[in-house]
Design goal:
By secondary structure, the protein is an alpha+beta fold. 21% of the residues lie in helices and 42% in strands. It contains 2 helices and 6 strands; from the N terminus they run H-E-E-H-E-E-E-E. It has a 6-stranded antiparallel β-sheet with strand order 1-2-4-5-6-3, with helices on one face. The chain is globular. It starts with a helix and ends with a strand.
Length: 146
Amino acid sequence: MQLGCREIKKLIPQRFPFILIDRVVDIVPGKEALAIKNITSNDILLLGHFPDMPIMPGVAIIEAMAQTAIILFAVKSNEEQGTKKPLYFLGSVKARFLHPVVPGDQLKIKVLSERALPTGAFVSAEATVEDKKVSEAELIFSVKNE
């Protein structure tokens, strides 16, 4: 299953300039997802980080991972609950940054469900550029059904 911009906007609450994934290229609901973010010199988050040497902030990479994780579980949740939209709260992050991400890079974000609970989930995430790992993280988040 693939998702474009319109489908992503239906599943996550974030809006411009904080939607940090451009496309979901593969998803197995509740199990794993692969998303991409194309990094350009026009990205608003890069304007001040750093003006003479733009680098995607680590916190933005974590947010892209979290948004991919939301989609991973939101697709499954929508299938099960219909119109009810759960709220997702990122609670804990353990991350490592291995290489900078710069304009011209295509960031691929892979998220795997390690453990899903009715009230949250544990996921592992990895971000790569041209098959080179640039970041990895363990994310824990809670889910509140409206």
